Structure formats: structure tokens, C-alpha cells
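Colleagues,

For the teaching module next term, I've prepared a clean inverse folding example: a structure given as C-alpha cells, and then the sequence designed for it. I'd like students to try predicting residues themselves before seeing the answer, so please don't circulate the second half yet.
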């Protein structure tokens, strides 16, 4: 004998209310645990995560920024978030001037509105491809760093990964030297990807084309990022915990 439909309603209502309560508790827990430390990664297509295979190039989820966030969250939990603001084909001067593809906000306005505590900056390859001089690159990166620091951001500069073409790579080496110079002059952290990767015996086999790494090289880049960023992240999180404890 089939039970009356009315006898099912209380049980169904109870299940519905329980499900809604569970959803509410999940939302409440998520809201109670916001990211405490925000990192924004700015750069070109090697920041975005372009990789090429079978004659097709496109953005991959297996990129250095994603690998970096995975490593930081494995160490510190969901308190740390890394946002990828890489844009293919762009230069440091375009970021400074707000002339990146699809974006029209100059850097000073953009960084003033940013909630990030840490920003990473990675350019150099497109400067070579577009015929900029090392001096022009130096001027653009210097302005990016000084503006970010003026708004209280911790800045981490990165040199580009090397390029397999010898002539282009020689020009890129000059750009990397300018990034090192800016880091030294403005006393900010540096991830010297160019020097580290250039010393790897098989780095060219980990390039998907003349500029973009394969996922395995992006993972190596993320490891270098983590080595430099993790002590800073740890210090900032501990400082935040100390401030909260003192205010309680």
C-alpha cells in the first residue's frame, strides 16, 4: 500500500530545511575565511601561461602562476590567493600606460585601487620582439616598481625565461640585466628566472616554441617563484596574526 502523499511532506520538508541549513553553513564558513594575503601577477604571455603544441598556442591551466598558488596554498592554506593578470604580447611600458590589449587604465590608477599586498612583475620578451632599448625597458620597470611601492605594495620582479634563438636571447640578456638593476636600486625581491633556467642543461627541450615554456618548465619557474615568495608570505601572515592577537 502506497503511503498518502501528505505523509511524505514533513519528511521532505525536513530534508529540504537540512539541505538549506548545510548550504548556509558552507557559505558562512567560506565568508568567515577570506583570503588574508592577495598576490597579483603581472606580465606577458609567459605569465598568462601560453604554451604551444601541434602548431597551436594557447593559455594553459598548467602555468607558473597556477603552480605557485598551489604551492603556497599547500603550505599556508586558503589564506593566500594569486591572481593572474598576464596579457599576451604586452610590455612593461604598456602596463604602465594602460595600453595593454583590452585594458585602458594606467598603472598608477590601477595599482592604487588594488587590494593586493604583493605584486609580481615579469616582462622583457616583447620588449625584445618590439625593438625597445634596454634603457626604455629600465625606465618602464622603474616606474612600475616605484608606483607600486608608493601604494604600500611589496614588489617582486622577475627576469624572463631565456629564448632558444641566440641573437634574440643576447638581447633578452640585456633586458634581464635591467630588471636586476631595478631590483637592486629599489630594494625589491628578484626571481632571476633567466639566470636559473639558462644554467639548466636541457632547458631548450622544455620550450614549446621560441618564447613559451612547456608545462614542465612553467612548474620549474613556479618553484623559483615559491623559493623567493614563501619567506615573504610567511612573514606577512605571521605579522597579520600578531596584529590580530594584540587587538583581541
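(Answer key — instructors only)
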Amino acid at each position: 500500500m502506497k503511503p498518502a502523499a501528505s505523509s511524505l511532506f514533513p519528511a521532505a520538508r525536513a530534508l529540504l530545511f537540512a539541505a538549506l541549513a548545510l548550504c548556509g553553513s558552507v557559505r558562512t564558513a567560506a565568508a568567515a575565511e577570506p583570503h588574508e594575503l592577495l598576490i597579483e601577477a603581472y606580465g606577458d604571455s609567459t605569465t598568462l601561461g601560453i604554451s604551444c603544441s601541434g602548431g597551436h598556442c594557447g593559455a594553459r591551466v598548467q602555468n607558473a602562476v597556477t603552480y605557485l598558488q598551489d604551492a603556497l596554498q599547500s603550505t599556508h592554506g586558503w589564506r593566500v590567493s594569486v591572481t593572474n593578470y598576464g596579457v599576451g604580447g604586452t610590455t612593461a611600458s604598456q602596463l604602465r600606460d594602460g595600453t595593454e590589449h583590452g585594458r585602458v587604465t594606467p598603472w598608477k590608477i590601477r595599482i592604487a585601487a588594488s587590494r593586493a599586498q604583493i605584486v609580481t612583475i615579469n616582462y622583457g620578451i616583447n620588449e625584445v620582439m618590439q625593438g625597445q632599448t634596454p634603457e626604455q625597458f629600465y625606465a618602464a620597470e622603474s616606474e612600475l616598481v616605484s608606483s607600486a611601492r608608493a601604494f604600500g605594495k611589496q614588489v617582486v620582479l622577475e627576469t624572463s625565461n631565456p629564448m632558444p634563438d641566440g641573437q634574440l636571447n643576447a638581447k633578452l640578456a640585456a633586458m634581464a640585466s635591467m630588471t636586476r638593476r631595478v631590483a637592486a636600486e629599489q630594494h625589491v625581491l628578484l626571481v632571476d628566472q633567466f639566470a636559473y633556467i639558462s644554467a639548466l642543461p636541457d632547458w631548450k627541450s622544455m620550450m614549446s616554441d621560441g618564447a613559451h615554456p612547456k608545462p614542465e618548465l612553467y612548474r620549474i619557474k613556479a618553484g623559483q617563484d615559491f623559493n623567493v615568495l614563501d619567506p615573504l608570505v610567511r612573514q606577512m601572515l605571521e605579522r597579520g596574526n600578531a596584529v590580530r592577537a594584540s587587538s583581541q
